[in-house]
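During the practical work, I selected for study one protein's amino acid sequence and its backbone structure tokens, as given directly below:
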Amino acid sequence: MQRISFLFILITLLLSQVQAEEKPTAPPLPKEGYYIITYKNYSVNLEIDANGYEVRGGNSNDDSSGQADINYWILPGKNKIKIRLTERKGKQKETEGLSKEAEVKLLIGQKGQFPDEGLLIHHFQWPSNNNTKLGEWFEIEFNPPFNPPSHLWEQAEAITLTKEKEISVITFAKELTEILNTKDSKKILTWTQFRSKDTSEVRYYPYVEADELKSIAGMTKAIGSSWKLDTKNTKFTLLCNNQILSVTNQKGDPIITSKKGAAIPLYLSWIGGKWVIVR
């Protein structure tokens, strides 16, 4: 009887060991890298929003596939990715007989990897494994396993939009346009330095002031003093827990443009009692 009990215990231990060996272990979560969104859409329009930042607009009637690095827009704590599918418009609606499909992936990639080689965090596939209806927003919430190295979120105050704040933004944009038209690289850098430093860190690139001045000098040489500001129908949009303000026209285009087709997007934060270009 004791021998039978011993054999039973031995077999149980062996089986549990085999089961433990067969059970796959989850890969360790990375401590740095790039948050990447990849997407595909066929016969249906696709819109993607990351913490308020428009990764992909929903107005294109064309099939597409692409990717976007969203490290700039990742917040400490809870993050939200929103996805919406809508019907095609106009002539493109004639493709109703074709299969309507869309796929969005959120991954963490490492330097040197192709996007799909990264660690998959979330997967949205429509319609095969998602019953979201056309026109509805589908929301993904996640806490990042690591925060991209940014000093922005600890300094930027939550913005409450008031008429006074909007007027001060326009004043800031006017002054920035004037500075751009001086073609003085050092003066321009004083207005863009926070952005240059912080976005370099977020992308794991060292910030070198001499390189930044050289880049600004190249821009001013190519564009000259042709920057213009359009403040008609200005649109103010709060992003990233209200810590960033996007300033565009009603179509979502930049309000600072040049005759040669260049444009400067305005993403501002309120830091130390003043507006700062941050993205």
Q: What stands out?
A: The chain has two domains: 34-142, 153-277. The two ends are 75 Å apart (CA to CA). The longest helix spans residues 2-22. The chain has a mean pLDDT of 90.
